Amino acid sequence: MNHAIRVHEYGGPEKLVWEEVPRPHPKPGEALVRQAAIGLNYIDVYFRTGLYKAPSMPVTIGMEGAGTVEAVGDGVTDIAVGDRVAYAGALGAYAEARAVPAEKLVKIPEGIDFTQAAAMMLQGMTAQFLIKRTYPVKAGDTILVHAAAGGVGSILVQWAKHLGATVLGVVSTQEKAALIKSLGADHAILTSENIPARVKEITSGAMLPVVYDSVGKDTFLTSLDCLRPLGLMISFGNASGPVTTDLGVLAAKGSLYVTRPTLNTYTAKREDLVASAADLFAVVKSGAVKIAINQKVPLKDAAQAHIALESRKTTGSTVLLP
């Protein structure tokens, strides 16, 4: 017997339907994974609401998980039955068992359990490419992270501090401010404050070389106002809605750069995926970055997890347990 959460029509959390589905058989190039834990991410909301369109309906949403390989299809050589594996960027995670393209799977090293792996793959590898490749953070940099108490944000804060940066984190409450300070953030800025003014004060007017923004529409212009001339705005999420703006604004605010990167692009090559995951596993095993799994929810109750995520009641990572 196999169950999954499927979406038959776009809409609110009530559109997440727990139902029995056939046990998949791996096709050539695929592996059948019996899942032990599944990661919750804001991209799941986008697929549920229709902001991101599914290839077909009904759709099993979810992008990351971890479990044990139960079978492999023809042509699979890197992954074997019995391997502990994790993945990100493969739609269809909200299921007890699922077939995954083997090229998306990485082996989980000793010292990392299933819940950690499921909670860190998408968010952690996103953080990895953001601070190692999109803008390589170096010692002495001062950076700003929006939604700093969230899944990607909390990893960015810790990893950037490990690299020697001064980290400014934006959060919505005093409780979240205390949380990110405990993770190493040098300054916690509340969303109710004048964020560019605080950045100007903290940097003595120098402003920032880079801003990491997963919020989208509501914070885009604010983020631009935090940058120094030729600074880089990294918009990697749409929690408040998609960004629409006149490119002339970039010229007016100092010949700024903007990018909208995705994990799938940065890990499209197998060697890049393996290297990103290895870097992530190493920094977590070292203790420099801790994966805070602050919410565990039964998979069948995924709607409750979506409600909590969208209302900003979650911190760190949430995992769904089959």
TrEMBL record:
GO terms for molecular function: mRNA 3'-UTR AU-rich region binding; NADPH binding; quinone reductase (NADPH) activity; zinc ion binding. The keyword Oxidoreductase applies. One of its GO terms (cellular component) is cytosol. The lineage of its organism: Bacteria, Pseudomonadati, Pseudomonadota, Alphaproteobacteria, Acetobacterales. Keywords: NADP, Oxidoreductase. The keyword Translocase does not apply. PROSITE patterns: QOR_ZETA_CRYSTAL. It comes from Siccirubricoccus deserti. CDD domains: QOR2. This is Quinone oxidoreductase. Residues 11-320 form the Enoyl reductase (ER) domain. SMART domains: PKS_ER. Signal peptide: none annotated.
